[in-house]
Design a protein that fits this description.
The complex is a heterodimer of chains A (306) and B (286).
Chain A (H helix, E strand, L loop, with lengths): L2 H12 L3 H41 L7 H6 L3 E2 L3 E2 L2 H32 L2 H16 L2 H19 L7 H11 L1 H13 L3 H9 L4 H30 L2 H6 L17 H9 L7 H32 L1
Antiparallel strand pairs in A: 1-2
Helix pairs in contact in A: 2-13, 4-7, 4-8, 4-10, 5-8, 6-7, 8-10, 9-10, 10-13, 12-13
Chain B lengths: L1 H36 L5 H5 L12 H32 L4 H15 L2 H15 L6 H25 L3 H9 L4 H12 L1 H16 L3 H4 L22 H10 L6 H35 L3
Classes of the chains: A mainly alpha (306), B mainly alpha (286).
């Protein structure tokens, strides 16, 4: 009998009866197994999603060429399954949203992390949480009832288009930008700030020359994740983009994004048809974009570790 | 020197402005939503079924379905999400396997909800052949909740001081006993807050549900049947804007928007506030 077993035996005599002890150990092992099983199940989900969406989407290529699919701007099935207009509109709305939302969100994050007094912070924190709580269809509805009309009256066109969608999205990405950049600003060591002040810099100089560069990987990650959110946003965009499968030659021309066009066409096409499969291929393209975002964030954030 | 001071003042002013603009946008949105929709929220509107072409339809079944589907989706996602979060916080070593679990959870969190919707459609509507059902919608919605639950659970558990675990293990408790008797009670308020966050997001989700739970409601009021289509409030708002023919659809859209935001607000207050009070009592500080 080796030492470990002898100790075990002694222990079991000491306080508990050996039966309840082994029962507890069995519970312990059982729950470890359950928790590991849950973790495994969660990680399997994403692979299953990729597999099924890819399988359904890639059947498009039985009838359409891959080159035509990604490069052609004409969507007129069954002759052409070109989704380039949709890809372009997705990026155009996202870029516009970032142009408005990212600077505002970053400024808000700096304000909340370094400037605002405690009571202002106590108001702004739940306020940014509320932005997340407002459902995307409500954002879309606000866009339809306010922004589209303003754009139509002041800029022209029908009001629907990239401009309206970008404006709606710019507000929707605010919480993402704010919360992640604020966290990364707060995570900076206090000594950086103290050293800068000790050298005679004022607050703005400290923020601009010390804090922003030091937090830049986190700030960049915030913007990238906001971008992912904007590209993937569906309902709000669908309600204000105009839903016309044409290239967005102007900001106020009705068009369609990858997400919004899936919604429009999915209801009208039978499952398994080529045009329906093409929608799944568009979803697969979106999936690829969001995976690329995750990897990009990992690369960006790791740079800070070095 | 003066120039520098001016720059600092200007920057400070601009940052205050940014904060004010952000708060202003939110207030404007909320006031607009309630100003437009609060008059529509009558008992009749809240309880009666929707009408397709005539005026005077309500959102009774939608309101019910919203909570029913939310409840079911939490029922599916809570055990697995909590379990995976506990595994990552308490058991996982830093090896390749843990890296894969983390990466895939993170990836799942960024999948656009429309893609989740299409996935749910392949599985529940077509492969299993259920058609549009409350069950399929709730199960797909659970996928949206999962990664957030995992992250919140892990973060909350990690915030528990390590000395708690050491003390419990030193008393002879097994790891499972430690988790159940010491760690989970200690982070209960945090977990409740996390679940509120998840529920708030799931309440307003529409892209997932359109292609899994469908656009129609059961003719029976408060139908608990899992295998009937179940349109939720958010989906209804979209449908009313996009395709409805009812003459009062603008009012219905405004009322549904106000109701959705109201539900989210009440939900946050009803669950968030007690948990904050509980936390204050348990930890003895703010």
């Amino acid at each position: 009998m080796d030492l470990a077993m002898r100790i075990k035996k002694k222990k079991s005599k000491a306080t508990m009866t050996s039966i309840s002890m082994s029962l507890q150990l069995r519970y312990d092992r059982f729950f470890k197994f359950v928790f590991f099983g849950s973790a495994a199940a969660v990680s399997l989900v994403i692979f299953t999603i990729i597999l099924f969406v890819a399988f359904q989407g890639l059947q498009t290529f039985k009838e359409a060429s891959a080159l035509d699919f990604f490069i052609n701007t004409t969507w007129s099935p069954p002759a052409h399954y070109g989704i380039f207009s949709f890809i372009f509109s997705s990026f155009a709305t996202t870029l516009l949203a970032l142009l408005i939302g990212a600077p505002l969100g970053l400024a808000g994050a700096i304000f909340m992390a370094k400037i605002a007094p405690q009571w202002v912070r106590d108001v702004l924190r739940p306020a940014t949480d509320l932005f997340v709580g407002i459902p995307s269809v409500v954002y879309g509805w606000i866009g339809m009832t306010i922004f589209v009309g303003i754009i139509r009256d002041n800029i022209g066109g029908s009001g629907f288009g990239v401009l309206a969608a970008g404006t709606v999205l710019s507000v929707m990405i605010l919480p993402t930008v704010i919360s992640i950049s604020e966290d990364s600003l707060r995570a900076l060591p206090q000594s950086l700030e103290e050293a800068s002040y000790a050298l005679g810099a004022n607050r703005w100089q400290t923020i601009r020359r010390v804090l922003l560069p030091a937090a830049s990987p986190g700030l960049l990650a915030a913007v990238i994740l906001a971008m992912a959110r904007a590209i993937g946003e569906t309902m709000a965009v669908q309600m204000v983009i105009g839903n016309s499968p044409q290239f967005p030659a102007s900001l106020v021309l009705p068009t369609a994004t990858l997400t919004s066009w899936i919604v429009v066409e999915m209801g009208n096409t039978p499952f398994g048809s080529t045009i329906n499969n093409a929608l799944f291929l568009m979803a697969f393209t979106l999936l690829g974009l969001s995976m690329a975002t995750i990897l990009l964030v990992r690369v960006v954030v790791r740079r800070r570790m070095v | 020197m003066n120039n520098r001071r001016f720059g600092d003042r200007l920057a400070t002013g601009l940052f205050w402005l940014a904060g004010a603009v952000i708060l202003g946008i939110l207030l404007f949105y909320l006031i607009f939503i309630f100003w437009k929709g609060i008059n529509v929220l009558t008992p009749h509107f809240l309880l009666s079924p929707p009408k397709e072409v005539a005026a005077g339809g309500g959102v009774g079944p939608e309101l019910f379905n919203t909570f029913y589907i939310l409840f079911l989706s939490l029922l599916f996602s809570l055990p697995v999400g909590l379990g995976a979060g506990i595994y990552l916080a308490e058991y996982a070593r830093s090896n390749r396997l843990t890296y894969i679990v983390r990466l895939s959870t993170e990836s799942l969190a960024t999948v656009p909800s429309i893609v989740l919707g299409l996935f749910g459609m392949i599985i529940f509507v077509n492969a299993i052949g259920l058609g549009f059902t409350i069950l399929g919608g709730a199960a797909t919605l659970a996928l949206l909740n999962l990664p957030v639950l995992v992250r919140v659970t892990e973060e909350t558990l990690r915030a528990v001081p390590f000395s708690y675990r050491e003390a419990s293990l030193a008393l002879g408790a097994t790891q499972w006993q430690t988790i159940r008797r010491v760690i989970l009670p200690a982070c209960f308020p945090g977990l409740i807050t996390g679940v509120t966050l998840v529920a708030g997001r799931a309440l307003g989700e529409s892209a997932i549900l359109i292609f899994t739970a469908g656009l129609s409601v059961s003719r029976h009021a408060f139908d608990f049947n899992l295998f009937v289509p179940g349109e939720t409030l958010a989906v209804h708002l979209w449908y009313v804007n996009a395709e409805a023919l009812a003459p009062d659809k603008d009012a219905i859209a405004a009322g549904t928007s106000a109701l959705l935001v109201l539900v989210v607000l009440i939900f946050n207050l009803a669950i968030g506030l007690p948990s904050r009070l509980l936390q204050r009592r348990l930890t003895g500080n703010k």
